[in-house]
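Backbone geometry tokens:
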Amino acid sequence: MLRVVLGLLKGAVVGGALGWGAFKLGITGGAAAILTYAVIGGITGMICGKPPWRQDTFWTSALKGLFGVGIGIGLYLLGRRFLGMHITLPAALGAPGEHAIADLPIVLGPLIGAVWGCVIEVDDGGSAKAAAEKAKSKPA
């Protein structure tokens, strides 16, 4: 349970920070949005789970990041297709009028980051020490 919450938080922070930056730059769609969500997926994949400096090889984190690029783009395209609800953000954020959720990286970025971060954290969160102890206790 702790891994799920940790993955949600890590992914939401990464997605929120990058989504806020994209929102302030005025990115709402097109190639810039695809690049934004690719970066969100990639960085979330590298940060969540075991940190890169505790991995056995550099390639483990690199592969999680590369796979995260595809996941980020795929989740963005799914969100674009199915999240057509319109919401209005406060004027203090500088949002002009009403937009679809998929057009607001400040909303969709943390969602994508949280989903991917949760998956990575649960998958990569097991400790090697516990696995080694489990293997020792099994009779041969």
